[in-house]
């Protein structure tokens, strides 16, 4: 499977497993899972065909491990805008986590902190390199440090997804550290 096809299938899966399952007639269970056969049939019925082998390739090679397969079911690991309960237990975060963004968002972040926006949670990275890649998707990246230890001590709940993304409801501005010059 070539890279272009891999990206196309991955984006299709993300759209329908995270944001718009009803668009192709899917109903995710409470944990965000759907039967793989049902997904493939629904996609095909709506004009986008892919095989189980292509799906397995996308799941196995996705550098962000966006999808999880359990038996005959698949779900997105996080990032949903539809209501799901990923069943992730609270976890103690490392002392610092990181968030990649771009300069044009900094004014709003300074005023409001990090908000989940249309997702269920704010997404944080365990290392600067990952946060840099995340921020670079929208332009020149700016990496913010999050004092996760202080947040945790103050009662904020963290969870970590199967693919290592740290999740929390919001990050108030007092826990954020901006790089010099920003």
Automatic annotation (TrEMBL):
Top EC class per UniProt?
transferase
Whether Transferase counts among this entry's keywords is yes
- Entry keyword set: NAD, Transferase
- Give GO MF terms, alphabetically: NAD+ poly-ADP-ribosyltransferase activity; tRNA 2'-phosphotransferase activity
A Gene Ontology biological process in which this protein takes part is: tRNA splicing, via endonucleolytic cleavage and ligation
Q: Which Gene3D superfamilies match?
A: 3.20.170.30, RNA 2'-phosphotransferase, Tpt1/KptA family, N-terminal domain
Q: Could you say which EC number(s) this protein's record lists?
A: 2.7.1.-
Q: Which domain of life is it from?
A: Bacteria
**What Pfam families does the record tag this protein with?**
PTS_2-RNA (PF01885)
InterPro entries the UniProt entry points to: Ptrans_KptA/Tpt1, RNA_2'-PTrans_C, RNA_2'-PTrans_KptA, RNA_2'-PTrans_N
User: Which SUPFAM superfamilies does this one have?
Assistant: ADP-ribosylation
For this chain, the family text in UniProt reads:
Belongs to the KptA/TPT1 family.
Question: What is the protein's known function?
Answer: Removes the 2'-phosphate from RNA via an intermediate in which the phosphate is ADP-ribosylated by NAD followed by a presumed transesterification to release the RNA and generate ADP-ribose 1''-2''-cyclic phosphate (APPR>P). May function as an ADP-ribosylase.
Q: What is this protein's record name?
A: Probable RNA 2'-phosphotransferase
Q: Which organism is it from?
A: Streptomyces fungicidicus
The gene that this protein is the product of is kptA
């Amino acid at each position: 499977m070539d890279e272009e096809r891999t990206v196309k299938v991955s984006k299709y899966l993300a759209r329908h497993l995270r944001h718009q399952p009803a668009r192709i007639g899917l109903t995710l269970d409470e944990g965000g899972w759907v039967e793989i056969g049902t997904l493939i049939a629904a996609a095909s019925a709506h004009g986008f065909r892919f095989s189980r082998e292509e799906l397995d390739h996308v799941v196995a090679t996705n550098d962000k491990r966006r999808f999880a397969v359990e038996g005959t079911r698949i779900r997105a690991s996080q990032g949903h805008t539809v209501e799901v309960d990923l069943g992730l237990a609270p976890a103690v975060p490392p002392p610092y986590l990181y968030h990649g963004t771009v300069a044009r968002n900094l004014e709003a972040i300074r005023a409001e902190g990090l908000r989940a926006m249309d997702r269920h949670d704010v997404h944080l990275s365990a290392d600067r390199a990952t946060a840099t890649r995340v921020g670079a998707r929208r332009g020149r990246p700016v990496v913010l440090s999050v004092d996760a230890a202080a947040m945790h001590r103050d009662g904020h709940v963290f969870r970590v997804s199967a693919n290592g993304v740290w999740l929390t409801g919001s990050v108030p501005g007092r826990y954020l550290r901006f790089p010099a010059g920003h």
